[in-house]
């Protein structure tokens, strides 16, 4: 049924595309100034937006179907056990400045990308092991790239690699994507103009993109962004908070788009670091699976989704959101809200209710603090709701909001905290992107980072499974391994996943062909297919 | 005493009385979440409706006002005493000591207190109850808020120490401490009194600002800071009227504190 709907939507996009009005200027806001216009160095949201709008890539992940589609390459093949990928490139393409595109540009981009001196964040994903990356320019517009070690999901990684020109005097400003940067007023706005040499055409043979130019205003204040949308000064807001979303929906339901559960999650975890400055009895609580499971069962996730996110979230199940169609383990269900079961689990570890508070075997009243970042209203509300939920099983929770640097200092250096509530932003569908979280030796293994050897058998098992899935190219085998990782995470709950927020966006009726999806960039993933209403287009 | 001053005093007394009797007046616990009624409109059960988590807003306003209204004067008293001690001694002794103390005071005034407050808040132990957290917040405000008042008191003390009655007391054989305690401090009272009343709304505002940054009083204990956070954001302008009750009360109380001062005290 879902596939049928997706196919229908794609067909609609093609039909609407054929009827689309060309011209006009699309307006939207960036929350900060792009730190770089070099696509290989893009790491912040604003720079990634510019990369998406201007960069030509060999292959593109379709944000709607989550499938890989041809871009500058018409076909590709991964061989040599995942070490080599060969692309067949489109011929006759030109960069925005008129420079011709060839396999040499791909070789140049790879050489730049893997240059250790450049410190490219995009390049990090390709650095599975030490060694040289070789790029061979083959006859008939073919190019072959060989890595020193197999890389799982290799082809999908090229969705992030914008090809740069080896010959253009404009260097990174010469692009192969739908737009090029025409004007950059630092701290104020950027103007992108249509790339007349863009390779793609619509079904009627018309040159894409339809919209003549894009103006990106740098606007940190979300209230101002909202105001500008309601005044018609901008055409969409890519990501909207639940509070704002409901206000937009109340004003004009056609503007509010809820694409369903996103890949992002909100979760809490306990500090399980062996040398943390916590008393021994608290360390014993936090390392107990029964304790963590009990806390999880005592939290009413449905209420959090309904009240904090106004129904625009769903109880989280595990490390993978159901929005990740391929990798989500559909056998798992969200932990139910069951305080009776929570007390039974706690009783197995000797916890008991005495004179009101819950006490451990030695008689310590169960009380702990949870830290979260100050200024994030949703997290503060979640923590307050958890506070009331845990009081239902006799646990006293102290909510502490800290400025972000102090919080990071505590969770990454001093380990002077008991529990932490934060969120995880997921851009990547492939589990390889979560290696730094799940490997016990990793820095981002938040509950107990940088372990020399796995502290528990289940962490050792996760290490083994994560490495196994990363070293094979067979998607079925990888899925089996990562399903097991999700099952262990569900059973052990080192992270207590709370909710997956919905992907919410607001789109002006003047913008046509917009079909917001859960993957970033939610609204303008099909930027070359978007068009403005004839009135708006005429006015520009 | 003019009518505005009288009204302000009566208003402050009524508000303080209502807050002190919050345990008896409040229809619900300030922390209890009525989860089936988030953002509810006023009703018989919830006189001012509920907040975004379903907590009774009337109860939270009562308890929040109690927190801010009791602890802000306490912090003001602490800062006024510190200002009297530091500024009084500096002004009374004069010379190098005065210059040294005032240089220290100027340095203290030039420090970015918001960042210091954030840093100190981050260094505090995490497992403290909301009551202790609020006491720490206001104690910090009291300890940090003396510098401005100390400069004024120093100037006043310097002027007093050169006055005839001090010269007479000195000539009569009064020495340092007696001169300071028996003759100088009683004459500093009007300026101290004015500084105290000026500090109260300043501390209320500072706590509210910290609360808006999420660094004030810990949940679930309400304060004016946390109550005003509900109004954060431009979109609340179109919100229901009862949402603005904490803001109106806040403005009235702060204004009343200013009206309580006489013209002479304000001139100081």
Assembly type of the shown chains? heterodimer
- The total of helices of chain A stands at 17
| CA-based gyration radius of chain B | 22 Å
Q: Give the low-confidence spans of chain B.
A: none
CATH architecture of chain B: Orthogonal Bundle
CATH fold-level label of the largest domain in chain A: Dipeptide-binding Protein, domain 3
Number of domains of chain A: 3
CATH H-level superfamily of chain B: MetI-like
At CATH level 2, the architecture of the largest domain in chain A is Roll
The largest sheet of chain B, given as strand count, sense and whether it forms a barrel, is: none
Total number of strands of chain A: 21
End-to-end distance of chain B: 18 Å
The CATH fourth-level homologous superfamily of the largest domain in chain A: Dipeptide-binding Protein, Domain 3
Spell out the helices and strands of chain B N to C: HHHHHHHHHHHH
Summarize the model shown:
The complex is a heterodimer of chains A (about 550) and B (about 270). With about 550 residues, chain A is of the alpha+beta class.
Describe the structure.
The complex is a heterodimer of chains A (540) and B (268). Chain A is α+β, with helices and mostly antiparallel strands and 540 residues long. Chain A is 31% helix and 21% strand. Chain A is built from 17 helices and 21 strands. Chain A has helices at residues 2-19, 45-54, 103-113, 121-124, 154-157, 222-230, 242-251, 280-286, 289-298, 301-308, 339-348, 377-391, 404-414, 435-438, 457-470, 475-492, 534-539, and strands spanning 25-30, 59-61, 68-70, 73-79, 84-89, 134-138, 142-146, 179-185, 189-194, 213-218, 236-237, 256-270, 313-315, 352-353, 358-359, 367-373, 396-402, 419-424, 495-507, 511-512, 531-532. In chain A, strands 11, 12, 13, 16, 17, 18 and 19 form a 7-stranded mixed sheet that branches. A 4-stranded mixed sheet of chain A has the order 1-10-9-8, covered by helices on one side. Chain A has a 4-stranded antiparallel sheet with strand order 4-5-7-6, covered by helices on one side. In chain A, helix 9 (289-298) runs antiparallel to helix 11 and helix 15 packs antiparallel against helix 16. The radius of gyration of chain A is 25 Å and the shape is globular. With 268 residues, chain B is mainly alpha-helical. Chain B has a single domain, classed as Orthogonal Bundle (MetI-like fold). Chain B is 70% helix and 0% strand. Chain B is elongated, with a radius of gyration of 22 Å. The mean pLDDT of chain B is 85. Classes of the chains: A alpha+beta (540), B mainly alpha (268). Chain A binds chain B through residues 222-224, 226-227, 243-244, 247, 303, 307-308, 367-369, 371, 374-377, 380-381, 383-385, 387-388, 398-403, 406, 416-418, and chain B through 31-33, 35, 38, 52-54, 118-119, 121-122, 126-130, 213-215, 218-220, 229, 232-235, 238.
């Amino acid at each position: 049924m879902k596939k049928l709907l997706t196919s229908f939507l794609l067909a609609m996009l093609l039909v609407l595309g054929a009827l689309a009005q060309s011209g006009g200027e699309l307006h939207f806001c960036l929350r900060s100034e792009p730190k770089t216009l070099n696509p290989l160095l893009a790491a912040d949201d604003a720079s990634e937006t510019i990369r998406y709008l201007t960069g030509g890539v060999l292959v593109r992940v379709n944000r709607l179907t989550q499938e890989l589609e041809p871009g500058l390459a018409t076909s590709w093949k991964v061989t040599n056990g995942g070490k080599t990928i060969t692309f067949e490139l489109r011929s006759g393409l030109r960069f925005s400045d008129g420079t011709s595109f060839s396999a040499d540009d791909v070789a140049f981009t790879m050489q730049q990308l893997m240059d250790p001196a450049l410190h490219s964040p995009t390049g990090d994903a390709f650095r599975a092991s030490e060694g040289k990356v070789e790029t061979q320019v083959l006859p008939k517009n073919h190019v072959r790239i060989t890595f020193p070690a197999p890389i799982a999901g290799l082809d999908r990684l090229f969705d992030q690699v914008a090809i740069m020109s080896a010959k253009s005097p404009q260097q990174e400003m010469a692009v192969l994507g739908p737009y090029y940067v025409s004007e950059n007023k630092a701290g104020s706005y950027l103007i992108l103009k249509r790339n007349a040499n863009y390779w793609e055409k619509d079904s009627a043979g018309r040159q894409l993109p339809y919209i003549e130019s894009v103006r990106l205003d740098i606007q940190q204040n979300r209230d101002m962004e909202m105001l500008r949308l309601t005044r018609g000064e901008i055409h969409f807001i890519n990501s909207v908070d639940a509070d704002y979303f409901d206000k937009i929906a109340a004003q004009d339901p056609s503007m509010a788009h809820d694409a369903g559960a996103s890949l992002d999650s909100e979760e809490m975890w306990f500090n399980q670091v062996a040398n943390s400055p916590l008393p021994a009895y608290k360390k014993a609580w936090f390392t107990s699976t029964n304790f963590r499971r009990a806390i999880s069962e005592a939290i009413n996730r449905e209420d959090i989704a309904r009240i904090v996110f106004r129904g625009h979230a769903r109880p989280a199940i595990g490390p993978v959101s159901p929005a990740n169609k391929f990798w989500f383990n559909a056998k798992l269900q969200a932990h139910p809200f069951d305080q009776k079961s929570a007390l039974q689990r706690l009783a197995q570890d000797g916890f008991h209710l005495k004179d009101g508070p819950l006490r451990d075997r030695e008689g310590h009243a169960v009380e702990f603090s949870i830290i979260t970042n100050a200024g994030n209203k949703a997290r503060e509300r979640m923590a307050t709701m958890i506070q009331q939920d845990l009081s239902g099983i006799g646990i006293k929770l102290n909510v502490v909001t800290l400025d972000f640097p102090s919080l990071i200092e505590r969770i990454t250096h001093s380990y002077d905290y008991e529990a932490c509530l934060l969120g995880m932003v997921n851009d990547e569908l492939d589990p390889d992107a979560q290696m730094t979280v799940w490997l016990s030796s990793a820095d981002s293994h938040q509950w107990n980072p940088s372990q020399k050897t796995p502290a528990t058998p289940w962490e050792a098992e996760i290490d083994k499974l994560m490495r196994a899935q990363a070293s094979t190219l067979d998607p079925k085998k990888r899925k089996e391994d990562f399903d097991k990782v999700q099952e262990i995470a569900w059973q052990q709950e080192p992270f207590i996943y709370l909710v997956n927020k919905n992907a919410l966006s607001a789109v002006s009726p003047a913008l046509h062909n917009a079909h917001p999806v859960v993957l970033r960039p939610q609204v303008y993933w099909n930027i070359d297919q978007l068009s403005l209403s004839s009135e708006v287009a005429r006015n520009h | 005493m003019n009518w505005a001053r009288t009204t302000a005093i009566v208003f402050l007394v009524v508000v303080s009385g209502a807050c002190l009797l919050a345990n008896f007046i409040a229809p619900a616990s300030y922390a209890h979440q009525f989860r089936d009624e988030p953002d509810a409109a006023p009703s018989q059960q919830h006189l001012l409706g509920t907040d975004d988590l379903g907590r009774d807003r009337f109860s939270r306003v009562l308890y929040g006002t109690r927190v801010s209204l009791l602890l802000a004067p306490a912090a003001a008293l602490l800062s006024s005493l510190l200002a009297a001690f530091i500024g009084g001694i500096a002004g009374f002794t004069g010379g190098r000591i005065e210059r040294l103390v005032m240089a220290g005071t100027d340095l203290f005034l030039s420090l970015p207190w918001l960042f210091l407050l954030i840093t100190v808040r981050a260094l505090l132990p995490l497992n403290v109850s909301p009551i202790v957290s609020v006491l720490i917040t206001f104690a910090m405000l009291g300890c940090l808020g003396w510098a401005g008042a100390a400069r004024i008191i120093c100037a006043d003390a310097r002027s007093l120490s050169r006055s005839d009655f001090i010269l007479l007391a000195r000539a009569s054989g009064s020495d340092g401490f007696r001169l300071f305690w028996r003759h100088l401090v009683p004459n500093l009272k009007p300026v101290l009194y004015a500084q105290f009343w000026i500090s109260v709304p300043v501390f209320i505002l500072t706590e509210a600002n910290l609360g808006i940054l999420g660094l004030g009083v810990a949940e679930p204990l309400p304060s004016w800071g946390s109550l005003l956070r509900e109004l954060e954001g431009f979109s609340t302008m179109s919100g229901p009227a009862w949402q603005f009750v904490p803001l109106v009360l806040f403005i009235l109380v702060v204004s009343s504190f200013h009206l309580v001062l006489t013209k002479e005290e304000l001139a100081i």
